[in-house]
Amino acid sequence: MNGFFLLIPFLLIRFGLLFALDKNAVRRAAHFAPLRGREKIAYFVYQAATVGILVCPVFLSVRADFSWMFWAGAACYVIGLALCAVALACFSSPDASGLNTNGIYRISRNPMYVAYFACFLGIALLAKSPVLFIMVMAFQISAHWIILAEERWCLARFGERYERYMREVRRYV
């Protein structure tokens, strides 16, 4: 099977589900906080890695060989898709101020990033692709810098509520 077919459920969940739940949430999910310094470099790496992650699977194939890597990849992929659906469902219904602290956001401040990582890691493992694995790692490392900018923006926008949320809920898992 061509590796691109693994991206279709992800894209349907990421864009289709979010659009079906709340059209405004699509715009909110695409918002990037103001960046400064090294965060701008991280943003470039993040975008380049995202393009690579979306294009690379077109050139890869996935075979069910039932090795440990296949099972680990399948588990990461399915967990990533499920987590993505749950995170997007919660993201689509913030409180009146726009802050998301409900559902999965009580466990992780960034469940969508965790879901993307799990899903993309699963695809890299299923395709047994070191190149895609490197792109996924670049994506995740650069995403951390994007998240730091988002946290700064949220602190400025939501103040003490977000500061308390940061103390109570971990950044990732």
What can you tell me about this protein's structure?
The protein is globular and about 50 Å long. With 173 residues, the chain is an all-alpha fold. The longest helix is centred in the last third of the chain and has 29 residues. The relative contact order is 0.18. It is built from seven helices and no strands.
SS content category:
mainly alpha
Mean pLDDT: 96
Total of DSSP H or I helical runs spanning 4+ residues = 7
Strand content of the residues, in percent? under 5%
- Measured between the Cα atoms of the first and last residue, the distance is 32 Å
Q: Shape, please?
A: globular
Question: What tags apply to this protein structure?
Answer:
0% strand; 173 residues; mainly alpha
Give me the secondary-structure topology.
Blueprint: H1 7-21, H2 23-30, H3 38-55, H4 68-91, H5 111-127, H6 130-158, H7 160-168
Helix pairs in contact: 1-2, 1-4, 3-6, 4-5, 5-6, 6-7
Brief rundown of the structure:
The chain is mainly alpha-helical.
